[in-house]
Design brief:
The protein is an alpha+beta fold and 185 residues long. It has one domain: STM4215-like, CATH 3.30.2000. Helix content is 18%, strand content 41%. It is built from four helices and eight strands; from the N terminus they run αβββαααβββββ. The strands form two sheets. Strands 1, 2, 3, 4, 5 and 6 form a six-stranded mixed beta sheet that branches.
């Protein structure tokens, strides 16, 4: 994924909306901590939350590109933990919870994973958290989704093609002046 352009949460929401649209309207797939109001009916809705990222690789290197510009490329590989919650007051959450892992293994999902450089794990636990909701009597299930993601940032970098270096050798002798050109090295 290009850093700052598209997030794992957005990609997963897009997959769920595409694959589960036959049972749920797109406005019922919400991203956690955004401004929204829960639907005022008993039917199911989904909340997608980024919970944790573990960094496995963090690389930074520079090179001169095809048109002669000096660029810096940064790559970051992470394992993101995404939690997908499905809730309802009626039986829909209970009925549709298996649709989440199925949607994340669909052909469309695999195409999105290739397009945006991430990989969704094939195994994901579905946990019943209905008791957390207390007396509100919601059905609630959390699907924990491990996702391997590669983030990339490429940007132009300033550099100086010539540095003057002064060297003092043999205490008391005159200074030697040398020019250092990093582009040659």
């Amino acid at each position: 994924m290009i850093l700052g352009k598209y997030t794992t949460v957005q990609a997963i929401r897009n997959i769920l909306v595409s694959e589960m649209s036959y049972i749920m309207a797109p406005n019922r797939f919400l991203i956690y901590n955004q401004e929204y109001q829960f639907p005022n009916d008993p039917n199911a809705w989904v909340i997608i939350k980024h919970s944790l990222s573990k960094v496995y690789a963090n690389n930074n290197f520079t090179y001169v590109n095809d048109i002669g510009n000096y660029v810096e490329e940064q790559d970051l590989n992470t394992q993101d933990t995404i939690i997908i919650t499905i809730m309802s007051k009626n039986l829909q959450a209970l009925q549709y919870k298996e649709g989440i892992p199925m949607a994340l293994r669909s052909v469309f999902s695999q195409q999105q994973q290739e397009k945006y450089a991430f990989k969704i794990a094939t195994l994901m636990p579905i946990q019943d958290l209905s008791e957390v909701e207390g007396g509100s009597m919601y059905y609630r299930f959390d699907v924990t989704v491990p996702v391997l993601t590669c983030y990339k940032l490429i940007k132009g970098q300033n550099y100086f093609d010539e540095f003057e270096t002064y060297v003092d050798v043999n205490d008391g002798q005159p200074d030697l002046t040398a020019t250092f050109n990093p582009a040659v090295l």
